[in-house]
Every structure is written in structure tokens, then in C-alpha cells.
Amino acid sequence: MSKIKVGVIGCGSIAKHRHLPEYLSNEQVEIVAVCDIVEERVNELAKSYNAKAYISYEELLTNPDIDAVSVCTPNYLHAPITIAALNAGKHVLCEKPMATSRADAEEMIKAAERSMKKLMIAHNQRFVTSHQKARQLIEKGEVGKIYSFRTAFGHGGPEGWSADGKESWFFKKKEAFIGAMGDLGVHKTDLLRFLLGEEFVEVGAFVETSAKENSDVDDTAVCVLKTDSGIIGTLAASWSYVSKEDNSTIIYGEKAILRLEDDPNHSLVVQYKNGEVVKYELGEIQTNEAGGQKSSEVINHFVNSIVKNIEPPVTGEEGLKSLQVVLAALESNETKRIVKF
Predict the structure, then answer these.
(1) Torsion angle defined by CA atoms of residues 4, 99, 165 and 331, in that order, rounded to the nearest 10 degrees
(2) Which residues, at least 6 apart from 148, have a Cβ–Cβ distance to it below 8 Å?
(3) Which of 13, 87, 295, 333 is the most buried (most CB within 10 A)?
């Protein structure tokens, strides 16, 4: 079978450190195009990957040789570019959050259905080994009935990671729409849905802009979430954790407590009701910190869905369900009420 020809739209940090290197290491893919409005940036990456440089994504999408694209742009462009790419007959891997509104996300899903092309949202937390193992334990009944959880995703902020540093689009509401809750919180809403196997039906949230002076989006958020069966818990998303990144999740169940990415040496610790403790060494979680360049597995799953013509593991519908929890959290903060959805 001939290789899948891929174009990457948006050449910031997520493309540079995740999408492009992971496409390169996948033998079923050929990187043929890169696109960014910053000419110097796109030309540099085009040279590195022996690909054609585009300044306009519309022009890239007219190239009939391109089979699939990654959309790695600021959040407000996710929906229009994804829809245009699907309409042009390309498979799409879109970064999270998939869109900035429910209506836009629904249009993306419709475009995928019309074009009969794959649409996958890049929620990588599902593919972390400790998270996969925890889901297996929950499905097997090892944890029993689940009562509650707490999860956090926080670091010092995107200025240390983004290609534009403190001037990054991450801090501009017009381009990002949402701050830490969209950057980090949506990862955790998706992970919790994956782990618990349930949908959230109520959310209450406090969302603040307190840590970043150069920003008009949220940088610190704490949410209380409730699933349809009554599992309750907290989610914290923050750009104000000035020391080591926190990406931990703890599940409290009838028979055991699962501690995910909470122990520095063991990515999963299971504390059973009878006093037994099982510690798993399952490899490090992928981080944005130095040395945290472990494969996210997102690219491999996306490519596999195209090659085998199967549904991607994180469809547009899945992306929307994870996004709507975040949108409800914003609504809760604005209205000072619990939001049901």
C-alpha cells in the first residue's frame, strides 16, 4: 500500500514536538506539506522534513496528493480549517479543544459524515499506559462501585512551551477563547469519561484569571463534576503551578483506590480495602517538560484508523462530549449556578 501523504497546518510547538516527529516515525506516512502564516517558521520546518511550505491553508487543501491533515492552529481556527479540510476530502486529526462552541463542533461532525473521512480529536490522555491499565481494572470490577475522584492538570503555563512564549495566542481570548480549562481541563474531562465509562450531567465551577498578567483567559479553575450514576469529584486545571507539573488522578471505589500519575516512581498505585498495595511501573507519562518527549500514540491511532478504515478511538462525537463539560464549567462560573446538561 502506498504511504499516506500528510500535511500539518500550524507549525507551533505541538506540531514541532508531537505531530511532525510522530508522523516521521510512522512508516505508513509521508509528510508532504507544512503550513503556517509565519514564513520563517514554516520554511524552517519544510526544510527539516523535506516538505512543501504553504502560507495559506486554503492553498494546501487544494493539493490533491494530500490524504490527511493535522490541525495544530490556535483554537478559534480548529473548526473552520477542519470543516474545510473534510470538505476537500482529507482525513483530519484536530488538536483539542476541538472547537470553541458546541455548534462549531457539531458542524465538524457533520462535515466528517458528509465526506466519509476520518475525524479524530487529539486527546492523548486515553493512551497513557497507566490510564489504560486503570480502565481495565475498573471494567473487571477490581475497584467495585466508584464513589468519587479527584483529578488535576497544572503547570507553569504555556509561555514555557509555546512557540511565541509570553506573546502566545494561548493568552488571547479572541484566538484561544478559553485558557487553562481548554488547554488542560478538557484533557481531564476526556480522561474521566474514558476511565469511568459514564457521562457527566452536572458541573459547578470557579474559574479565575489570577496568575498571568499578560492574559485575558482563565489560568486557574476548579470544578465539581457529577456523572449520570452519581459519581462526584473535582477537577483542577491551572497554569499557576510554579514547580513540577501535576497530572494526577485518584479514583475512590468500593474495593480499592487507584492513584494514577500520583507517585513519582509508580505510574499506577492500587490500594485495596484489605490493606494490599500493588505498585505498577508502566513508564512515564508524556509531559511538556524536558525529557518528556515520549510518543503520545495519537498519530499512530489516527494513521491506523485510515489504513484499516476503522473508527478513530477519539471521534468528533467523543471530542464534543468532552468539550461540553468545559463549556458548562464556563457557564457555571458566569451564572454562579450548577449547570445541568
Answers:
(1) -160
(2) 231, 232, 233, 252
(3) 333
Return the residue matching grid coordinates 478513530: 312
Read off φ and ψ for residue 133, nearest 5 degrees: -65, -40
Question: Rounded to whole angstroms, how far apart are CA atoms 118 and 104?
Answer: 17
Contacts for 307 with CB less than 8 Å, ≥ 6 apart: 1, 4, 28
Low-confidence residues of the chain, pLDDT below 50? 288-293
Give the phi and the psi of residue 305 in degrees, each rounded to 5.
Answer: -65, -30
Query: Three-class SS of residue 326?
Result: helix
Share of the chain above pLDDT 90, in %: 92
pLDDT at 296: 81
| SS3 track for 109-170 | HHHHHHHCCCEEECCHHHHCHHHHHHHHHHHCCCCCCEEEEEEEEECCCHHHCCCCHHHCHH
In angstroms, the CA 125 to CA 251 distance is: 16
In sequence order, the 6+-apart residues with CB closer than 8 A to the CB of 236 are: 150, 151, 152, 153, 154, 221, 222, 223
If one counts every other C-beta atom within 10 angstroms of the C-beta of residue 226, the result is 18
